[in-house]
Amino acid sequence: MDFALTPEQQSFRDEVRHWLERNLPRSWAERLHGGSDIPRPEAYEFLRNWQRKMYDAGFVGLTWPKECGGRGLTFMEEMILHEEMALAQAPPVLNILAIGMAGPTIIAYGTEEQKKRFPPKMLSCEEIWCQGYSEPNAGSDLASLGTRAVKDGEYYVVNGQKVWTSLAHVADWMMLLARTDPDAPKHKGITYFLLDMHTPGVTVKPLKQITGDAEFNEVYFDNVRVHESQILGGLNNGWAVGLTTLMYERLALGFGLQVRLRIALDSLVALARRTTKNGTPASQDPVIRQKLAQLWIDTEVFKYTGARAITRLLKGELPGPEASTGKMMWVEGHQRLQELAMEIEGPYAQLTRGSAWAIADGLWQHTFLRSRANSIEGGTTEIQRNIIGERVLGLPKG
Amino acid sequence: MNFGFNEEQELLRSTARKFFENECPSDVVRRLMETPEGMSPALWTKLAEQGWTGLIYPEEFDGMGLGLVDLVVLMEEMGRAVVPGPYFSTLLLGGLALLEAGSDAQKKEWLPRIASGHKRVTLAWMEPSAILGPDGVTLSVTRKNGRFVLSGTKLFVPDAHTADAIVVAARTSPGGGDGAGVSLFLLPKDTAGMEVKLLPTMDQTRKLCEVTLRDAQVDADALVGAADRGFIPMGRALDRATVALCAEMCGGAQKVLDMTVEYAKIRQAFGRPIGSYQGVKHKAADMLVDVENSKSITYYAAWALDEGAAEGPLAVSMAKAYVSDAFRRVAALGIQLHGGIGFTWEHDLHLYFKRAKGSEFAFGDATYHRERVAQFVNL
What we know:
The structure holds two protein chains of two kinds.
Chain A: H1 7-23, H2 28-32, H3 44-56, H4 75-87, H5 96-109, H6 112-117, H7 119-123, E1 129-132, E2 148-152, E3 155-163, E4 173-179, E5 190-196, E6 202-207, E7 216-227, E8 231-232, H8 238-274, E9 276-277, E10 280-281, H9 286-314, H10 324-345, H11 363-371, H12 381-392
Helix pairs in contact in A: 1-4, 4-8, 5-8, 8-9, 8-10, 9-10, 10-11, 10-12
Chain B: H1 7-23, H2 26-33, H3 41-49, H4 68-80, H5 87-101, H6 104-115, E1 121-124, E2 140-144, E3 147-158, E4 165-171, E5 182-188, E6 194-199, E7 208-218, E8 223-224, H7 231-266, E9 268-269, E10 272-273, H8 278-307, H9 312-338, H10 349-361, H11 366-376
Parallel strand pairs in B: 1-4
Antiparallel strand pairs in B: 2-3, 3-7, 4-5, 5-8, 6-7, 9-10
Helix pairs in contact in B: 1-4, 4-7, 5-6, 5-7, 7-8, 7-9, 7-10, 8-9, 9-10, 9-11
């Protein structure tokens, strides 16, 4: 057991730290920081430029092979990067669905041409990706999805609808799961397509959420023609390919989420220090202190459970279903963190952006509302518990 | 970075698991917990033969010279088997207090005998006030003809009734909040004026005593280390003991989870195994999260102390705060998911449930350690 960094890792950490010191946009936190995992719409342009800057410096896609535009480093460097970004309170990477999910899946399953074509533009944020999985009637039970793709010569004609699609309104590409064999058992008739969002017949309709923002979308397909060369991982093999994506999602989120939680916690501590409760700073209130300390502990615990998973990865083992515990922990911790922000603000918690009395221009009100989605998106907490129960503990299916 | 155990540590784990399955199965635990002594001299000898009674002492004192990370492995296995007896109080309390605070002569005299299994020493630290900080140490000391005279009451002293000697924390000068003014004394079991009374405890596998001193006189060489400077070295011993306890708790929690999952797979209700119901499955998943997280933070704390890292004491408090709550939750869910059978004396679950409750309050509960975390991180 050894948490110490090797000299190479230390010099990588110094490289990241110095770069962040010189390049971090100073005022971004006040303007745009949300503490939630998906950035607000008004931040997209800013974040696109930020990712580009990070990419030019060689800090995006660390673990990707060099021929795909990455640096061929290990998850250790990835973790160091995320930790330094947290310490510096750096903005997140916008094209997270590409970096965390689509990219690794293409690297794992793609043809040589696909591997050459897509990854570099993901890293540079030239092409933003979204994920076409969930449908109005296929959420937790994803395999029952109904979007159809019917063969027509060299093309497949797609009809149907996706929903809760983050970033679809700015995305250039989609990871699309569609049914190609309606007669096969439901897991076996699905194909994974790489869909150009600018293809005729694709309609994106923003979906207004309880925050008032529209970061999610509905996506409609009306006779959308996709060339067969855009199939990833083989016809009717989409379920296996899609699961790989989800596995990487949980892994990528594991790094990213710990960082976001840490950044949000630092902001919360700052809020508690400057907010007065009964005449003293909230951070001196014994009950609030207990809650803050527990969040501090949980954030650290999250980090070390992640570190144990990374140790397995570094030994060459695949991320296992254990990765599900990370998502659950983050959800529970982040929702509790946001509730605590409201508790610290007290009656001011009612005021939103637009009021001169609102604390931090209503930032926490937004992140608080946004956090309700955490236990639903990316696999509900109930589904995560099923996965842990069945795949880790070996309990029988219901 | 490598956050896993090495081959030797994995070997220690499998050796220890087999050892306790053979030497300390649940019927032995139950037999011993019913006796006042709560220990078996034969088992003690076997622990010593393995070298485990000196596992973390330096080799110059006949120890194995291993670290806390190694000990964590053994403690997890002891917790898994709810091993009763004075191993914890001897190796980690009395012995470590001597190692941290004692003079060379005291260490040479006592540690090899502890390591060989011939002597047992515990630590009398808390008092009826149950204050954990230095202010809690009020036991009075006066000097008379070059000897020390001690008077006062120590409470929650583990295994004092079977120890050969007790390290007693006492107040030698007013001091302040930094721990100055507290001295440690080593009192042999037959010291005149010392009375040891066994306390009935919820967790019968862990014996706690009241130690009363009435003008108990000891020689000048009974002072352990420097006068007025005992609290800080004792604190270092307690930090290690706390992490070892967390490891023991992890082992117990893992065992409860294992028993519960096993049962949920075979117990049928409404024609299906109860583990197929989400009401059961989801609670089992929550238990797993608690168990895995407990291990993560405990391993980290052990590593931080072994390395002498600056964040060591913070890591200790994070671990104790987390694991105290987690083991309590896991043990309670274990009973719940077993249903009625889990509430019977016959089933082993209550041994773990009670161990969880006792461990929760040893060395400070979650609330105490959360406040310590708040202070360490300057909240």
